[in-house]
Structures are given as C-alpha cells and as structure tokens.
Amino acid sequence: MNTCGFIDAAVEESLGAIGEALAENGRVVVTGCLGAKQDLIRKAHSSVLAITGPHDTAAVMQAVHAHLPKPHDPYVDLVPGTGVKLTPKHYAYLKISEGCNHRCTFCIIPSMRGDLVSRPIGEVMQEAENLVKGGVKELLVISQDTSAYGVDVKYRTGFWQGRPLRTRMLELCRALGELGVWVRLHYVYPYPHVDEVIPLMAEGRLLPYLDMPFQHASARILRLMKRPASAEKVLERVRRWREACPGLTLRSTFIVGFPGETEAEFSELLAFLEEAQLDRVGCFAYSPVEGAAANALPGAVPEELKEERRARFMQAQERISKEKLKGKVGKILRVLVDEPGTGRSSADAPEIDGVVRFKGGTAGAFVNVLVDRADEHDLYGRLR
Ligand code: SF4
C-alpha cells in the first residue's frame, strides 16, 4: 500500500485505505511518505506486515519476498547471476546492440533483425559487471556494428553505478576498461570516431585488437556492396592507429568473387592485403543468400574462379601471417589459458584466430609464455 502523509486528510485517507486492504486480504506492506511515521500506523493497524519509508523499493521487495515466497520456477531458478552462458567460464560475449543501419547488398541481416537498436548502456554495463563477478576474464564486445552503438538513441545518457554515461562506443569502452578484465572489440567499422578508442588500447585499458570487416578494397566493388569507407582512407587510418598503438592486432574478413569482380579488381584486393599487413584475416568466396540485393547484380563469377581467387588470397595472407607471427618469437606474451596446453594472447580471439601452445596451465588463468616457434597461425612456447 503506497501512502501519503503530506496533509492530515491524506493521513486519514491512507490509514483508511490500509484498513480496507487488511480487511480485504489481511497481508499488507505499507510504504510511501506515511511510512516514515511507523508508530502512527502501528497504533491504527498493528497487523501490517512491514512498513518502509518512501523510495525504498528494495525494502518493499524484501518484505514481499519474506511473506510471499516466490513459487519455484524450474526455468529461471537454475540460472546463475551471470545468466545463461554457452562459453567457458572465463570468457563471454557481450552483445551491445541488435540490427544494423547499413544495407550491404550481400547481407540480409537488416531485413531479418531490422535497424540498429542499442541496448541501454546501464544494462550492458550491469551485465558486464555481473559476468566479471561470476569469474569472466575476457569480455568480447559484439553487435552487427559496434562503432554505431548509440546512434539510434542519439547517444542518450544512461546510468551505471549512479554515474551518467552516454550511450556511445567511447564511453562504453572507457567504462568496460574499468572492470579490470580483457575487453576485445568485434565488428568495428573504420569511422573517424574509432580513432578515439585507440589511446585506450595503447594505455592497456582495452585489448589492442580490432576486428574490422573490410570485405574488399576495390572502390567499385565496395560501392556495389554498398559498404561504408574507401580503401585508401582505411590504409591511412590503419597506419595512424599503428603509430599510436604499435601492438595493435587487426583482424578482418573479405569476400572474393563478388558479382562483377574483375581480375584487376581482385589484384587490387591482393595489393591492399600486402599494404595493410593485417594480422588475422578470413576470406569467403561470395555465395548468394536468398533475399540479398547482390543476387540481381550482373557478372556472376564462376564457382571455380571464386575458389581459385580465395586460394590465392589465403596463400598471400598465410605468408604475411607467418612473417608477422615469426616476429613474436623470443617475446614473452600474456596468455589467457583456455585449457591446459592452449591459450590466447591479446592477438587471438576465441574460435576465429590462432592460439598459443605450451605445456601446463589451468583453464581461466593468466600465464606468461615465452614464444619459441611460430607457424602460419599459431605460436608455440613455454611457461615463464
Ligand atoms: S554486412 Fe554487417 S554492416 Fe552490412 S548490412 Fe550486414 S550486418 Fe550491416
């Protein structure tokens, strides 16, 4: 029963309403302004179950749960504070938004999931905090477009731990960086404001890792794909990011054999690969998805040619990757152990990148590994 105690008439009315409620079901918790006058209430109605002051939701809920225990719900009651997680105990994906405002012609995600809808920043931070309390050591920030976080809500201010926070990638990254765990960013686009998070990586508050799906390098193909950002600007940006954060790992994905892709455009892509010297790269041969606008484009590339280009692309990248990993031999890396003998450094996202192999270690622990050897994808070393 919410009450008012502001004027005498309100006190009378509130006491009368408490009496009615008691007569009705006999179990009443009183809250609101009149709750500050406990004696007055007790004198009139000694059988109320509990009395709280105004704005004390927690005390009201405590009284409700004490006198009306929740019925057992087998679906919810088994869920731990960290929610249901399909990943190992030590890492978790943190989804910050759903949907996408882009309309890439090869993709049907916007037609299935709609435009971008950002989760409130307070809710995202609360989930992150709960995960960390539950033992998570690495948070992987995911969405369809992480750099667009908050665009849909005009970067509205939310609250976390009573503190105002804008719904924006930079503010989110700063707040996540305070949790004291590894934070890895996925699906980031090379928008100018991404420059702002690089210093957080250089300072060690975020993992120096960016997963940035470029998809192609030819300006014409990117236009046909309706992708944001051009290749030259990307290269320039990558160069500046590496200057600001030399340990930065860049991961990307590409599509070869997009409708109309000429040999010259594919060569442009290979040249971009050489120039960009990306650390981790995935490559897909274009495959039409039902409902995608790209299906209507002329110049379908024959299957064998797509596969041939994919193989050439991967061969080039393997060479680059091998060289880059060779540069890590002799270094000591901080590694998060996934299972005894296998772990990941800041450069390795689970499932999609390489691993670091060594003898020993306990799942979920951080260890230091001295790298002895490298191949195209993985590193091998020993605990230090
Ligand atoms: S590929 Fe990514 S950015 Fe493009 S429409 Fe699909 S989800 Fe959006």
Keywords:
alpha/beta, binds iron/sulfur cluster, 20% strand, 3-stranded parallel beta sheet, single chain
Description:
With 384 residues, the protein is α/β, with parallel strands linked by helices. It has helices at residues 8-25, 38-44, 57-67, 109-113, 121-133, 169-177, 198-202, 219-225, 231-244, 263-276, 303-326, and strands spanning 2-3, 29-32, 50-51, 91-95, 97-98, 117-118, 138-142, 157-160, 163-166, 182-185, 209-211, 249-256, 280-285, 332-339, 342-344, 356-357, 366-374, 379-383. A 5-stranded mixed beta barrel has the order 14-15-16-18-17. Helix 10 packs parallel to helix 11. It is elongated and about 90 Å long. The structure holds iron/sulfur cluster. Iron/sulfur cluster binds at residues 100, 102-104, 107, 109-110, 144-145.
